[in-house]
Design a protein that fits this description.
Layout lengths: L1 E6 L4 E10 L2 E11 L8 H23 L8 E7 L3 H18 L3 E5 H13 L5 E5 L4 E7 L2 E7 L5 H11 L6 H8 L12 E2 L2 E2 L2 H13 L4 H27 L3 E5 L6 H13 L3 E4 L9 H13 L27
Parallel strand pairs: 1-4, 4-5, 6-11, 11-12
Antiparallel strand pairs: 1-2, 2-3, 6-7, 7-8, 9-10
The protein binds adenosine-5'-triphosphate.
């Protein structure tokens, strides 16, 4: 069964094509383009970007997958959560395609799609998931038909904090890799570390790091190193506690920030010390992409789900733990 997935929740528009055979997923293509503004994301401009690139991405995805339109069996799209104008663009594209090809359509949750692509590509079975991106920071575990959120950010997401800090420090975009470069050779200086029960907060840390830049008393590499260290140490602490509470034995990190080698190293050390396994989604699929949306659609369709066109309205505030998972037995 061949599924096409359309991703457009924020600043990336992506189309992926996958083939599902039994429990196996083969990614035939995954093409995407991201809009990088100088300042923060302007939702309307992001949507305009998606409209501009959609047709070329679609044609390239078909070409790379070496299939024709008529080979598509199912259309899947990111129905939420995300920015309303971006979501609407992806939804309109998906509805049009479904009606043109006369193939079923399914709207899926973007966050759950990040988790499932991570699981299938790493072979993790029942992990504590660390979902870290520009818009999300959650510690998640499956239990009783849903992905439960054990801990989450009380304010901004870690990727957003990193990107904002990188802008303030004039490091450029995207923040993660630029911060890594700037932190080379840095030493730790004291900065806020905010874990509250199973939740965490990044805004105080961001303010402190930004203020240190303005004050010009510390070396930039030390500020970058320490800011990054505390971001990842807070997440690692809560993930370890989730492992301990649930008695699960695997960690899986997904989302754009999963590309961070520093974070992955920290998680590896923590897991090694407690006899758990650490997995990370391959970097090519850590950021937003269409392949994960296609795989999620295929999984849900295998459990009998489909949408009527009139039920495909987008849901900007759809939480991970609101999704009923029917395909895990
Ligand atoms: P979502 O809609 O899922 O919240 P998003 O729109 O923010 O996601 P993603 O592509 O999942 O998009 O994640 C982008 C984030 O990943 C950015 O904040 C970026 O700085 C961060 N990132 C990318 N590479 C790295 C890296 N090597 N280290 C740390 N962060 C990284």
């Amino acid at each position: 069964m061949i599924t096409i997935g359309i991703e457009g929740t924020a600043h990336t528009f992506g189309i992926g094509i996958i083939e599902k055979k039994g429990k196996k997923c083969t990614i035939l293509s995954s093409i995407k383009k991201t809009y990088f503004p100088d300042k923060g994301i302007h939702p309307r401009e992001a949507a305009q970007h998606h409209i501009t690139v959609a047709k070329d991405i679609y044609l390239e995805a078909l070409k790379k997958a070496e299939i024709k339109e008529k080979d598509i069996d199912l259309v899947s799209f990111s129905m939420g959560p995300g920015l309303m104008p971006s979501l609407k663009t992806a939804a309109i594209f998906a509805r049009t395609l479904s009606q043109k090809l006369k193939k079923p359509i399914i709207g899926v949750n973007h966050c759950v799609a990040h988790i499932e692509i991570g699981k299938i590509l790493t072979n993790a079975k029942d992990p504590i998931v660390i979902f870290v991106s520009g818009g999300n920071s959650q510690i998640i575990g499956y239990s009783g038909g849903r992905y439960r959120i054990f801990g989450e950010t009380l304010d901004i997401a870690v990727g957003n904090a990193i990107d904002k800090f990188a802008r303030i420090a004039k490091l450029g975009n995207p923040g993660g890799p630029k911060l890594d470069k700037a932190a080379i050779g840095g030493n730790y200086i004291k900065m806020p570390y905010s874990v509250k029960g199973m939740d965490f907060s990044f805004s105080g840390l961001l303010t402190s790091a930004s203020t240190k830049i303005d004050q010009n008393k510390n070396e930039l590499k030390d500020i970058c190193y320490s800011f990054r260290h505390n971001c990842f140490a807070m997440l690692t602490e809560v993930a370890e506690r989730a492992l301990s509470h649930t008695e699960k034995s695997e960690i899986l990190v997904v989302g754009g920030v999963a590309a961070s080698e520093t974070f992955k190293n920290m998680l590896n050390i923590m897991c090694k010390e407690r006899g758990a396994k650490a997995y990370a989604v391959p970097t090519e699929y850590s950021g937003d992409n269409g392949a994960m949306i296609a795989w999620q659609g295929a999984l849900e369709h295998s459990a009998g789900r489909e949408h009527k066109i009139e039920d495909t309205h987008v849901t900007p505030k759809w939480r991970t733990d609101q999704v009923e998972i029917e395909y895990i037995k």
